Amino acid sequence: MNNTEYKQAIEQLNLWSKHYYVLDDPITTDEVYDKLYHEVVEYEQSNPDALDKNSPTQRVGDMISEGFTKESHLSRMWSLEDIFDKEGLEKWLTKTYKLDSNVSFYCEPKYDGASLNLVYENGVLVKGITRGDGTIGELITQNVKTIKSIPLTIEHKETIEIRGEVVIFKSEFEKINKLRQAEGEAVFANPRNAAAGSLRQLDSSITAKRNLVFLPYGVGVDTLPHKLLSEKMEYIYSLGFREPPQRAITKGYDEIEAIYEVMNKDRDSYDMMLDGMVVKVNEIAAQIDMGYTVKVPRFSVAYKFPAVEKITTVKEIILQVGRTGAVTPVAIVEPTNIDGVVVERATLHNFDEIERKDIRLGDKVIILRSGDVIPKIIKVLTHERDGSEVEVVKPTHCPVCDKELLQEEVLLKCQNLECDARVVNAIMYFASKPCLNIDGLGVKIVEALFKSGLVKSVVDLFDLSLEKLLELEGFKEKKAHNLLNSLHNAKGQEYWRFINALGIEHVGEVASKTLAENFGFAFVNATKEQIIECEGIGEEMAESLLEFVRVNAETITKLQTILEPLEPVKREEAKENPFKGKTVVLTGTMSESRGAIKEMLESLGAKVSGSISKKTDFLIYGEDAGSKYDKAVKLDVKTLTENEMKELI
Ligand code: IVH
Known about the structure:
37% of the residues lie in helices and 21% in strands.
């Protein structure tokens, strides 16, 4: 084989591979493929300098990493708001049409897998990054290269981020689990876990064996000229990516509902698991106009498929004591497989619910599992009773510390602040992801630390030393070092994490962010009036916060000294200018990205809104300004061209 033949062979192999993995339409046999592949391997061995990046040999996973490094996405990876029924769709459409009444929608499946961001530079795949927290993920390029439906090179030279979902086909999932069972390994609960787990293997040869599949659903940073999402996606597919099993451009409620029905009806016949349909505004300019809330895009929504139900038997009711002392009953049921997940327990929320639904031990019940939500009992089949069922007795004492329980509205509560379960759960919460995100504090370790007496409260965590840890059973040097390291890393984090980690009742992640932004370190001195003035914070939260601060002032100070969290920087007040304090709407194509102009105006103290109303002070318009311009004129809102805006500044 000479170099020209080598290049031709690569092209031939990649074409065969594309037909097999991307187009689902094989045009040769394994034998023919293997023969040519082998010749390519031989050529590369004798001519290592001539190696082509696009060669299929570059997909074999023979890399073992020590761990994954963190990597920033070029632009944020968002998540989606969920809706569950016709009413939800109607509400979402009303909201969306208020922002722009003239849009159409691109509908495609919501795949149940793991999200992945691919970065191509100069037409070459340079990075594969997991979603992570949306801003920073893990770099798993070596593993990503083993996925045959991901092209190693594309005919698109500018930098582009292609986003999509990595899934495992249902048939493949069953094969893997059978194999794991035969080898005495734990089986994966569902295809989603199997895909996510396979993607994060340190040994990429394991990833290679799992036959993962990539389905693109969008782009991040891009320079594509298309005005419609549907055109962008067609272009992405044309670069050599798999197309979705179903997609449609729709106008309005009826058409969305119709395609949703089709996908839901057909979902069993698709190779991959779907958990809904994603509806996206098709016009890119409208997408930019609508923008994002703190969490999700306004221009897109996940319309979930109905949950799946099964009949099973209640075997036992166990009691869990949470960090707030709330005692929650949990039903243990006869294990039953619902849409690929083995369900063994169902939440019951509280004892009122048991009474209301009249759930008894031994009852046949219908349980419902919907996506990520913990399964719940929706109905007792009372006509199936034979008299052997046993009523559930409401406990009077804490199952953990045996102190008397108090009924607080519907909740049963353990009042004992030192109850083992409460303390252990509070420590777990302190270390959890949306709090201080401390690795290595799983339930087993926290229980061991607590039982040994080394850690009686979160403050004690920071007095741990190597000597102390090594005295504990199961702690070797490495594990102890890792834990001390993670604890060290808990320092210097964002302040909202610190507030959230305190575990103040009713104050969660969103409220913690609000408090951090509005008050910074001074949140402990805020008055009730000041607290309630913050958006999204009500009376109950304010009271709970004030009470917490009153009782725990000393602990808060101590923790803050230990953890040295970062005080959020306040945006400096803008100097006087025509836009300060004004509400501004942007529309049409401008000389810079709309995001950049928005940021500039915000730094001048303006509020940039997505929709025109009587309250709008200025509409700033670029080329191809549409309905917003007309509406502004109608409402007598002052309109400015981009240049006029610049002159005013
Ligand atoms: S779009 C701008 N489209 O669902 C919004 N996401 O619940 C970005 N997902 O993290 C997401 N199929 O991993 C989009 N067709 C699809 C999807 C999809 C699956 C996942 C994705 C995302 C999660 C949000």
